[in-house]
Amino acid sequence: GRCCPGRDPACISTGRRPDGSIGPCYCDQACGRALDCCHDYARTCPAIPCVVSQWSAWSGCAEPCEPAQRVRSRLVVREPRNGAEPCPALEERAGCVRYRAGPGAPCQQALVPALVTTGGFGKARKKRAAADGKERAGYCVEFQLVTITPGCLHSHLWHTRWMRHLREGHTVCVECQHPALHARSHHCSGDGTGSKQNQLLHWQAVGNPRCKGTWRRIGQLDTCSCPSVHSFLFI
Fold first, then answer.
1. Which has the minimum average pLDDT: 74-83, 123-132, 151-160?
2. Can you give the residue ranges of the SMB domain (predicted)?
């Protein structure tokens, strides 16, 4: 009945060991890695998994009108015991932009180069817009990636891993949705509207300032048709 946390040489007993022999064996949490548990350890001290709370709401962006990060967190409700898997990550980050400098004060500067993030955040954005009653019809723009900085391949954080799928020469789809869709122009900043044919346009990935490059606008569509790893959002 002894179930000791960590590695505890004093948490010792005498009984049948995993190899079938009789002698000293241990009942501490590290015995599974050391392969010196008593034969009944798994039954007497079953693994108790970590339990975490629900995610908090996303924080706001740190600076208005500038690419930044938002964050959400959760807490450990119950620590893992008896060799269970460690707790999962307790914090997540995502790129964002706050579109207003203050109440009734929209950002003055256009967000150029185009700021993009993974299309996976589009569902939450549409859900918020529907709740606010501000859903507007968006559109999608296809681009061909021309150059990509090496910093995109070194994006290992959870909220930047999508950048590793960027490849020169590939076609990507970038969706323009509310609130990035400007109320007056009905366009997203940096979408290449009015650019010349084959003109090189600049983009930057939100969440990793070292991930940027150039692309050529192919054309505008009502809906995106690219696979998920090549589908992005204007910020």
1. 123-132
2. 1-50
Counting beta carbons within 10 angstroms of the beta carbon of residue 89, is it exposed (0 to 12), middle (13 to 18) or buried (19 or more)?
A: exposed
The model scores a pTM over 0.85: no
Structure tokens at 86: 């460690």
d(CA 221, CA 139): 6
120-124, 137-141, 172-176 — most confident range: 172-176
Per CATH, is 52-106 categorized as 2.20.100? yes
- Distance, in Å, from the CA atom of 26 to the CA atom of 109, rounded to the nearest integer, reads 66
d(C-alpha 167, C-alpha 148), whole Å: 7
Instruction: Extract the tokens encoding 45.
Output: 């001290």
* CA–CA gap between residue 208 and residue 155 (Å, rounded): 7
User: What are the residue boundaries of the structural domains of the chain, listed by start?
Assistant: 12-44, 52-106, 114-234
Residue type, 72: R
Contacts by 53-56, CB closer than 8 A, 24 or more apart: 53/77, 55/92
